[in-house]
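Researcher: Let's continue the batch. This sequence belongs to CidA/LrgA family protein, and it's 118 residues. Same format as the previous ones, please.
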Amino acid sequence: MILEFIIIFGISYLGEILSKILSLPVPGTVIGMFLLFIALYFKVIKVKQIERGVDILLINMAIFFIPPGVRLISSLDYMKGNWIKIIVLMILTTLITMVVTGRVVQYLVERGEKNGDN
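Model: Same format as before. Here are the structure tokens for CidA/LrgA family protein:
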């Protein structure tokens, strides 16, 4: 299981390094997720190699939200007077995410039906 965490966090760290070296406007964690996706897609890494580690991270995902939550609470002074903007932004981004996710799932289901997959 240690090897699984080394693979997962190593790829995440590689994303951080690439983000800093290339001065990309994308967070390193997002680049790391993309690199992990590419490695899984091209079967450089097999799902079985990281499955247990990923399961543990998913089960304990709530723990990862504690630091941003504490930071958010400590930044409440900065958000005074911007509540309407924040709420509108949250609603819009939620709606956009729901629509895009729905369209992607619908496309994949239709594509699967055309290929005879059920």
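Researcher: Any comment?
Model: The chain has a mean pLDDT of 91.
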